[in-house]
Please model this.
Amino acid sequence: MVSATVPQAAPPEKRIEEFLGDRYGERAGQLSVVPLSGDASTRRYFRLQDGSTTSVLALHPEPFVTDELPFVVIRSLLASWGVPVPELHDHDGARGLLVLEDLGDNTLQEVLKEASEVEREDLYREAVEGIVLLQREAGRAQQKSGCFQISFDLEKLSWELHYFLKHFVESHRGSNLSAEDRAVVAEAFHRLAEEIASWPRVLCHRDYHSRNLMLYGGRLVWIDFQDARMGPATYDLVSLLRDSYVDLDEEFVAHRAEEFRQKALPGEGREVFQRRFDLMSVQRNLKALGTFGYMAQVRGNPVYLPYMPRTLAH
Model:
Protein backbone atom coordinates (compact mmCIF):
# COMPACT_ATOMS: atom_id res chain seq x y z
CA MET A 1 0.00 0.00 0.00
CA VAL A 2 1.10 3.58 -0.62
CA SER A 3 2.00 5.52 2.53
CA ALA A 4 0.66 8.98 3.40
CA THR A 5 0.07 10.80 0.16
CA VAL A 6 2.29 13.68 -0.88
CA PRO A 7 0.95 16.04 -3.59
CA GLN A 8 2.26 15.07 -6.99
CA ALA A 9 3.28 18.68 -7.66
CA ALA A 10 5.70 18.75 -4.71
CA PRO A 11 9.15 19.81 -6.01
CA PRO A 12 11.83 17.09 -6.10
CA GLU A 13 13.94 18.79 -3.46
CA LYS A 14 10.93 19.01 -1.14
CA ARG A 15 10.12 15.33 -1.53
CA ILE A 16 13.72 14.33 -0.81
CA GLU A 17 13.88 16.67 2.18
CA GLU A 18 10.70 15.21 3.67
CA PHE A 19 11.83 11.64 3.02
CA LEU A 20 15.18 12.21 4.72
CA GLY A 21 13.45 13.95 7.60
CA ASP A 22 11.21 10.91 8.10
CA ARG A 23 14.11 8.45 7.94
CA TYR A 24 16.91 10.32 9.68
CA GLY A 25 15.20 12.90 11.89
CA GLU A 26 17.53 15.60 13.19
CA ARG A 27 20.49 13.99 11.38
CA ALA A 28 18.95 14.73 7.98
CA GLY A 29 20.67 18.11 7.78
CA GLN A 30 24.07 16.44 8.07
CA LEU A 31 23.59 14.29 5.00
CA SER A 32 24.99 15.16 1.58
CA VAL A 33 22.70 14.89 -1.47
CA VAL A 34 24.46 15.36 -4.83
CA PRO A 35 22.67 15.24 -8.23
CA LEU A 36 23.92 12.61 -10.67
CA SER A 37 23.72 12.69 -14.44
CA GLY A 38 20.52 11.01 -15.57
CA ASP A 39 19.36 9.19 -18.67
CA ALA A 40 16.75 9.89 -21.34
CA SER A 41 13.91 9.21 -18.90
CA THR A 42 12.07 11.60 -16.58
CA ARG A 43 13.67 10.04 -13.51
CA ARG A 44 16.31 11.94 -11.54
CA TYR A 45 19.17 10.46 -9.55
CA PHE A 46 21.06 11.67 -6.48
CA ARG A 47 23.94 10.29 -4.42
CA LEU A 48 23.13 10.25 -0.72
CA GLN A 49 26.17 10.28 1.55
CA ASP A 50 25.94 9.47 5.26
CA GLY A 51 29.49 9.58 6.56
CA SER A 52 31.41 6.90 4.69
CA THR A 53 28.22 5.21 3.46
CA THR A 54 26.60 6.13 0.16
CA SER A 55 23.45 5.12 -1.68
CA VAL A 56 21.55 6.33 -4.73
CA LEU A 57 18.16 8.03 -4.60
CA ALA A 58 16.06 7.34 -7.70
CA LEU A 59 13.35 9.99 -7.89
CA HIS A 60 10.37 9.22 -10.12
CA PRO A 61 8.10 12.00 -11.43
CA GLU A 62 4.96 10.39 -9.96
CA PRO A 63 4.03 8.38 -6.85
CA PHE A 64 3.92 4.60 -7.26
CA VAL A 65 2.92 1.40 -5.47
CA THR A 66 6.33 -0.12 -4.75
CA ASP A 67 5.39 -3.77 -5.23
CA GLU A 68 3.88 -2.95 -8.63
CA LEU A 69 6.69 -0.73 -9.94
CA PRO A 70 8.29 -2.45 -12.97
CA PHE A 71 11.82 -1.69 -11.73
CA VAL A 72 11.13 -3.40 -8.40
CA VAL A 73 9.29 -6.38 -9.93
CA ILE A 74 11.95 -7.00 -12.58
CA ARG A 75 14.83 -6.41 -10.15
CA SER A 76 13.45 -9.19 -7.97
CA LEU A 77 13.12 -11.53 -10.95
CA LEU A 78 16.63 -10.85 -12.19
CA ALA A 79 18.13 -11.32 -8.74
CA SER A 80 16.36 -14.67 -8.36
CA TRP A 81 17.95 -15.83 -11.64
CA GLY A 82 21.46 -14.88 -10.52
CA VAL A 83 21.70 -11.72 -12.61
CA PRO A 84 23.75 -9.05 -10.76
CA VAL A 85 21.51 -6.07 -9.95
CA PRO A 86 21.69 -3.30 -7.31
CA GLU A 87 20.20 -3.92 -3.89
CA LEU A 88 17.00 -2.09 -2.98
CA HIS A 89 17.63 -0.50 0.43
CA ASP A 90 14.48 1.55 0.99
CA HIS A 91 11.45 3.00 -0.79
CA ASP A 92 8.73 5.61 -0.43
CA GLY A 93 6.14 5.13 -3.15
CA ALA A 94 4.09 8.14 -2.14
CA ARG A 95 7.06 10.40 -2.75
CA GLY A 96 8.22 8.47 -5.82
CA LEU A 97 11.52 7.45 -4.23
CA LEU A 98 13.72 4.35 -4.28
CA VAL A 99 16.97 4.06 -2.32
CA LEU A 100 19.40 1.80 -4.18
CA GLU A 101 22.85 0.38 -3.67
CA ASP A 102 25.49 2.80 -4.93
CA LEU A 103 27.43 1.06 -7.70
CA GLY A 104 29.85 3.94 -8.19
CA ASP A 105 30.64 5.64 -11.49
CA ASN A 106 32.44 2.93 -13.46
CA THR A 107 30.16 2.24 -16.39
CA LEU A 108 31.44 -0.22 -18.97
CA GLN A 109 31.77 2.76 -21.29
CA GLU A 110 34.22 4.43 -18.90
CA VAL A 111 36.13 1.27 -17.99
CA LEU A 112 36.81 0.48 -21.65
CA LYS A 113 38.76 3.73 -22.07
CA GLU A 114 41.62 2.29 -19.98
CA ALA A 115 41.05 -1.45 -20.51
CA SER A 116 43.63 -3.67 -22.19
CA GLU A 117 42.68 -5.96 -25.09
CA VAL A 118 42.44 -8.92 -22.73
CA GLU A 119 40.35 -6.98 -20.23
CA ARG A 120 38.03 -5.78 -22.98
CA GLU A 121 37.47 -9.33 -24.23
CA ASP A 122 36.80 -10.57 -20.71
CA LEU A 123 34.29 -7.80 -20.05
CA TYR A 124 32.38 -8.44 -23.25
CA ARG A 125 32.39 -12.19 -22.74
CA GLU A 126 30.86 -11.56 -19.32
CA ALA A 127 28.30 -9.21 -20.85
CA VAL A 128 27.37 -11.76 -23.53
CA GLU A 129 27.11 -14.50 -20.88
CA GLY A 130 24.67 -12.25 -19.04
CA ILE A 131 22.32 -12.21 -22.03
CA VAL A 132 22.56 -15.99 -22.33
CA LEU A 133 21.76 -16.33 -18.62
CA LEU A 134 18.74 -14.04 -18.89
CA GLN A 135 17.29 -15.89 -21.86
CA ARG A 136 17.85 -19.31 -20.30
CA GLU A 137 16.40 -18.48 -16.88
CA ALA A 138 13.47 -16.47 -18.24
CA GLY A 139 12.65 -19.40 -20.50
CA ARG A 140 12.43 -21.65 -17.44
CA ALA A 141 10.38 -19.22 -15.37
CA GLN A 142 7.10 -20.57 -14.02
CA GLN A 143 5.53 -17.25 -13.09
CA LYS A 144 5.06 -14.91 -16.03
CA SER A 145 4.92 -11.34 -14.67
CA GLY A 146 4.16 -8.17 -16.60
CA CYS A 147 7.41 -8.05 -18.57
CA PHE A 148 6.44 -11.34 -20.23
CA GLN A 149 3.16 -9.82 -21.39
CA ILE A 150 4.60 -6.95 -23.44
CA SER A 151 6.77 -7.34 -26.51
CA PHE A 152 8.43 -5.86 -29.53
CA ASP A 153 5.48 -6.69 -31.73
CA LEU A 154 4.66 -5.18 -35.11
CA GLU A 155 2.94 -2.17 -33.55
CA LYS A 156 5.81 -1.34 -31.17
CA LEU A 157 8.55 -1.79 -33.74
CA SER A 158 6.66 0.32 -36.28
CA TRP A 159 5.99 3.05 -33.73
CA GLU A 160 9.71 3.28 -32.95
CA LEU A 161 10.61 3.61 -36.63
CA HIS A 162 8.10 6.39 -37.17
CA TYR A 163 9.40 8.01 -33.97
CA PHE A 164 12.79 8.18 -35.75
CA LEU A 165 11.14 9.74 -38.79
CA LYS A 166 9.41 12.40 -36.71
CA HIS A 167 12.12 13.35 -34.21
CA PHE A 168 15.33 12.73 -36.16
CA VAL A 169 14.56 13.13 -39.86
CA GLU A 170 11.91 15.83 -39.69
CA SER A 171 12.65 17.65 -36.43
CA HIS A 172 16.40 17.32 -35.90
CA ARG A 173 17.50 17.23 -39.54
CA GLY A 174 14.73 19.52 -40.75
CA SER A 175 13.83 17.31 -43.73
CA ASN A 176 10.43 17.69 -45.37
CA LEU A 177 9.66 14.44 -47.17
CA SER A 178 7.46 14.42 -50.22
CA ALA A 179 4.35 12.26 -50.18
CA GLU A 180 6.11 9.81 -52.50
CA ASP A 181 9.20 9.58 -50.31
CA ARG A 182 7.06 9.18 -47.20
CA ALA A 183 5.22 6.27 -48.82
CA VAL A 184 8.50 4.56 -49.76
CA VAL A 185 9.87 4.97 -46.24
CA ALA A 186 6.63 3.77 -44.65
CA GLU A 187 6.67 0.63 -46.80
CA ALA A 188 10.30 -0.08 -45.87
CA PHE A 189 9.51 0.44 -42.18
CA HIS A 190 6.57 -1.95 -42.42
CA ARG A 191 8.63 -4.67 -44.10
CA LEU A 192 11.42 -4.32 -41.54
CA ALA A 193 9.08 -4.36 -38.54
CA GLU A 194 7.01 -7.21 -39.96
CA GLU A 195 10.01 -9.48 -40.41
CA ILE A 196 11.44 -8.74 -36.95
CA ALA A 197 8.03 -9.25 -35.32
CA SER A 198 7.81 -12.72 -36.90
CA TRP A 199 10.91 -14.04 -35.11
CA PRO A 200 10.75 -16.10 -31.87
CA ARG A 201 10.77 -13.96 -28.72
CA VAL A 202 12.74 -14.13 -25.49
CA LEU A 203 12.93 -11.80 -22.51
CA CYS A 204 15.13 -8.76 -23.24
CA HIS A 205 16.72 -6.18 -20.96
CA ARG A 206 15.74 -3.73 -23.71
CA ASP A 207 18.59 -1.22 -23.20
CA TYR A 208 21.65 -3.43 -22.73
CA HIS A 209 24.63 -1.24 -23.57
CA SER A 210 27.83 0.10 -22.07
CA ARG A 211 26.12 2.84 -20.04
CA ASN A 212 23.80 0.40 -18.33
CA LEU A 213 26.47 -2.04 -17.18
CA MET A 214 28.43 -0.99 -14.09
CA LEU A 215 31.73 -2.57 -13.07
CA TYR A 216 31.28 -3.05 -9.34
CA GLY A 217 32.69 -5.64 -6.98
CA GLY A 218 34.63 -7.23 -9.82
CA ARG A 219 31.62 -7.93 -12.04
CA LEU A 220 29.22 -6.18 -14.40
CA VAL A 221 26.03 -5.15 -12.60
CA TRP A 222 22.87 -4.35 -14.59
CA ILE A 223 20.90 -1.13 -14.28
CA ASP A 224 18.01 0.53 -16.18
CA PHE A 225 16.17 -2.74 -16.76
CA GLN A 226 12.65 -1.53 -15.89
CA ASP A 227 11.51 -1.63 -19.53
CA ALA A 228 12.31 -5.33 -19.99
CA ARG A 229 10.00 -7.06 -22.45
CA MET A 230 9.80 -9.92 -24.92
CA GLY A 231 11.69 -9.52 -28.16
CA PRO A 232 14.14 -11.13 -30.60
CA ALA A 233 17.05 -13.13 -29.22
CA THR A 234 19.45 -10.74 -30.97
CA TYR A 235 17.94 -7.57 -29.45
CA ASP A 236 20.19 -7.24 -26.38
CA LEU A 237 23.19 -8.52 -28.32
CA VAL A 238 22.74 -5.76 -30.89
CA SER A 239 22.38 -3.20 -28.10
CA LEU A 240 25.72 -4.37 -26.70
CA LEU A 241 27.73 -4.84 -29.91
CA ARG A 242 26.23 -2.02 -32.03
CA ASP A 243 26.47 0.42 -29.14
CA SER A 244 26.05 4.16 -29.75
CA TYR A 245 28.69 4.93 -27.11
CA VAL A 246 31.58 2.57 -27.92
CA ASP A 247 33.68 1.75 -31.00
CA LEU A 248 34.19 -1.98 -31.54
CA ASP A 249 36.01 -3.39 -34.57
CA GLU A 250 34.16 -5.79 -36.84
CA GLU A 251 36.31 -8.81 -36.04
CA PHE A 252 35.66 -8.33 -32.31
CA VAL A 253 31.91 -7.98 -32.92
CA ALA A 254 31.86 -11.07 -35.12
CA HIS A 255 33.63 -13.20 -32.49
CA ARG A 256 31.32 -12.09 -29.66
CA ALA A 257 28.23 -12.60 -31.84
CA GLU A 258 29.33 -16.12 -32.80
CA GLU A 259 30.02 -16.97 -29.15
CA PHE A 260 26.49 -15.91 -28.36
CA ARG A 261 25.00 -17.90 -31.24
CA GLN A 262 26.77 -21.08 -30.16
CA LYS A 263 25.56 -20.76 -26.56
CA ALA A 264 22.07 -19.30 -26.97
CA LEU A 265 21.00 -20.38 -30.48
CA PRO A 266 23.05 -23.45 -31.45
CA GLY A 267 20.30 -24.66 -33.78
CA GLU A 268 20.16 -21.42 -35.76
CA GLY A 269 22.29 -21.32 -38.89
CA ARG A 270 24.92 -18.60 -39.28
CA GLU A 271 23.22 -16.96 -42.26
CA VAL A 272 19.84 -16.73 -40.52
CA PHE A 273 21.49 -15.46 -37.36
CA GLN A 274 23.54 -12.84 -39.24
CA ARG A 275 20.49 -11.54 -41.10
CA ARG A 276 18.55 -11.21 -37.86
CA PHE A 277 21.49 -9.52 -36.15
CA ASP A 278 21.86 -7.01 -39.00
CA LEU A 279 18.16 -6.17 -39.36
CA MET A 280 17.82 -5.83 -35.60
CA SER A 281 20.79 -3.45 -35.68
CA VAL A 282 19.03 -1.29 -38.27
CA GLN A 283 15.78 -1.06 -36.30
CA ARG A 284 17.45 -0.61 -32.91
CA ASN A 285 19.75 2.19 -34.06
CA LEU A 286 17.04 4.05 -35.98
CA LYS A 287 15.02 4.03 -32.77
CA ALA A 288 18.07 5.34 -30.86
CA LEU A 289 18.42 8.21 -33.34
CA GLY A 290 14.77 9.06 -32.75
CA THR A 291 15.46 9.27 -29.03
CA PHE A 292 18.56 11.41 -29.56
CA GLY A 293 16.62 13.76 -31.84
CA TYR A 294 13.77 14.00 -29.34
CA MET A 295 16.15 14.79 -26.48
CA ALA A 296 17.85 17.53 -28.51
CA GLN A 297 14.82 19.15 -30.13
CA VAL A 298 11.99 18.61 -27.64
CA ARG A 299 13.79 18.34 -24.31
CA GLY A 300 16.56 20.80 -25.23
CA ASN A 301 19.25 18.35 -24.07
CA PRO A 302 22.24 18.14 -26.46
CA VAL A 303 24.08 15.41 -24.51
CA TYR A 304 23.40 12.74 -27.17
CA LEU A 305 24.49 14.77 -30.19
CA PRO A 306 28.09 13.43 -30.19
CA TYR A 307 26.79 9.87 -30.49
CA MET A 308 24.69 10.41 -33.59
CA PRO A 309 27.46 9.74 -36.17
CA ARG A 310 28.35 6.36 -34.68
CA THR A 311 24.68 5.41 -34.46
CA LEU A 312 24.13 6.40 -38.09
CA ALA A 313 27.14 4.28 -39.08
CA HIS A 314 25.57 1.27 -37.36
Summary: The radius of gyration is 21 Å. Residues 1-7 have pLDDT under 50 and may be disordered. Strands lie at 32-36, 44-50, 53-59, 88-92, 97-101, 201-204, 213-216, 219-222, 229-232.
